[in-house]
Amino acid sequence: MTDESGPKGDPVPASDGHRAVFLSYASEDTEAAARISSSLRNAGIEVWFDQNELRGGAAWDSAIKKQIRTCALFVPIISANSRARVEGYFRFEWKLAVDRSHLMAAEKAFLLPVVIDATDEVDARVPEKFHEVQWTWLRGGENSPAFVAQVTRLLAFGGYMQPAGAAPALTSRPMAPAVPTPSVGRSPCSEQSIAVLPFVDMSQNKDQEYFSDGLTEELIGLLTRVPELRVPARTSCFYFKSKQATIADIARALNVAHVLEGSVRKAGNTIRIAVQLIRADTGFHLWSQTFDRTLDDIFKVQDEIAGSVVRSLCDALLSATLPARSAALNSESYQLYLRGHFHWNRRSPEEFRKAITFFQQAIAVDPDYALAFTGLANCYSLLPIYDRTSQATQTMPQARTAILRALAIDDNLAEAHASLGLILTLFDFEWLAAERQYQRAIELSPNSPVPHQWYGELLVNTGRFDAGLAQGRRAVDLDPLSQVANLALGIQLNSARRYTEAIEQLQKTLTLGRNFADTNYLLFEAYANKGLYQEAVAAYARQKQLDGEPATEVAALKEAFAKDSWPGFLQLRIRSLEAQEQPDCDEIAAFSARVGDLDRAFAWLEKSYAGRSARLTHLKVDARYDNLRADARFADMLRRVGLGS
């Protein structure tokens, strides 16, 4: 609302401020601030941003203080200009806003920093409190429907979101709100829809989380098989675990009419499972029941719960029957499988290895447990992607052995067909065979997001962009809060050369999880492909900070860009990567291609091929390699990975 030179208008609000947004910015950023203000006002949001009259003095100063004390949301606009000013009236506004935020509950959203250029959060020169909340990047104050929707939601629901946590943010990624912004333009909520929230472990020792999580997942899986019923996938439902959010907010974020919640109390070989079905818009309990069973009956209990929920939803589903399950009949092997799946869902090299141990133990107890073999195959397939010390040439044969055994046991297991499709894609480059496996998985389980996601990636990578993006969006629709599904869609948009959409999608992914995978690296690629090199370097630096690279090396990257622009940054990074004990072959090849060093690029591409890098599956559409496409060596590489004639 003001700049460092003083007031620019009459700040006295026409309302009490309970739904008003206060903009604070440096004078050099007036145009960008005006664009943000216009976007919000066009959406019917009151913005305190008045430049009509010039008034100064104590009365004006008092009015500014009143606005900051009463506004609903405070939006500091951050840029190279604000960083350069060590003094300014906007800094006084920032201090007042921070002081007010200390009086608020941890889950109350009040500060919403907006960056309008490539300024890095680490170097932004802002109050420490700003680092504890979600940041938004709006280049030049450009209109962003996602940002407007976020502000609208926060104003509508009082701005309550996930607590920032005990520790301050140490990175420059946005924090994840407890109740994300609903997708713009999504389909209306169906009456025949339900979200299954993670069951709470009420056991005395609180040591049955794996069991309560597994029961929740099994129920989601069973309900997903009812064709008439829309059930958000596991990742989206588990997003709300241990977060402060109302049933209404959760239902709104997941676009469902009903919510199932419950608890598990386990003692020895006996369990008590309490379940209740809630209508989200009224909060009324439609049905509740308590099941007391022994562990020997756990499969029967799960079927009973799922059947009761279906019958309670609406008369239209009374005739619906649940398809036969594909689970072990042995209680001990099932609990070992649950432990393995618990670690698998944590998605890190260490957790994958723990999961492998439990899956192997489950198989030792029950050698005909198809799901355990599938879990084993998935761990081996994804290890090389998450852990650069793992070699696909070693893990993929193990994955193939496991998944073929799973399919020999149960050829109607959708998860196994999808897993085989992934192996055929990543390791064998057998695109047609992989496509058939994905199609079979979707036929068996049309509401499972993973086959749609993987099939979408295959379609995009083979140049069928519209069909691939439709599959990618279907995966996000089925699992709207999944970091994996949202990241995959961002990658697909980038591969389809829809860079603006890719950037927005990847920024959305960051709001779902600030430390997730290589999201900033993929954002770097999208920025670079669009020619936004300053933003690209900033995103790359954020990723390297998250990866634990020394601060001196991260600073050197920025200095190289400042001194020698984009080519200087690329050359420095190539030298640094080549000096590593285990260099990333794909990244060096891509950087070499970008600077036009064709021989070096092809030399590293050959090493990438020898190691069966998963990134080779993008080769046909990957913009990073555009400088190589006229070379005969590139056509030969495309042929070898099954993407050329």
Q: Concise description?
A:
By secondary structure, this protein is α/β, with parallel strands linked by helices. It has helices at 30-42, 57-70, 80-84, 89-101, 145-156, 209-224, 234-238, 247-254, 298-313, 331-344, 349-365, 370-386, 392-409, 414-426, 431-444, 449-461, 465-478, 483-495, 499-512, 519-530, 533-546, 551-578, 585-594, 598-610, 632-640, and strands at residues 20-24, 46-48, 73-78, 114-115, 136-137, 194-196, 200-201, 258-267, 270-279, 285-294.
Topology of helices and strands:
Layout lengths: L19 E5 L5 H13 L3 E3 L8 H14 L2 E6 L1 H5 L4 H13 L12 E2 L20 E2 L7 H12 L37 E3 L3 E2 L7 H16 L9 H5 L8 H8 L3 E10 L2 E10 L5 E10 L3 H16 L17 H14 L4 H17 L4 H17 L5 H18 L4 H13 L4 H14 L4 H13 L3 H14 L4 H13 L3 H14 L6 H12 L2 H14 L4 H28 L6 H10 L3 H13 L21 H9 L5
Parallel strand pairs: 1-2, 1-3, 3-4, 4-5, 6-8, 7-8
Antiparallel strand pairs: 8-9, 9-10
Helix pairs in contact: 2-4, 6-9, 6-10, 10-11, 10-12, 11-12, 12-13, 12-14, 13-14, 14-15, 14-16, 15-16, 16-17, 16-18, 17-18, 18-19, 18-20, 19-20, 20-21, 21-22, 22-23, 23-24
Walkthrough of the structure:
The structure is a single chain. The protein is of the alpha/beta class and about 650 residues long. The chain is built from 25 helices and 10 strands. The strands form 2 sheets. Strands 2-1-3-4-5 form a 5-stranded parallel beta sheet, with helices on both faces. Strands 6, 7, 8, 9 and 10 form a 5-stranded mixed beta sheet that branches. Helix 10 runs parallel beside helix 12 and helix 12 runs parallel beside helix 14. The radius of gyration is 26 Å and the shape is globular.
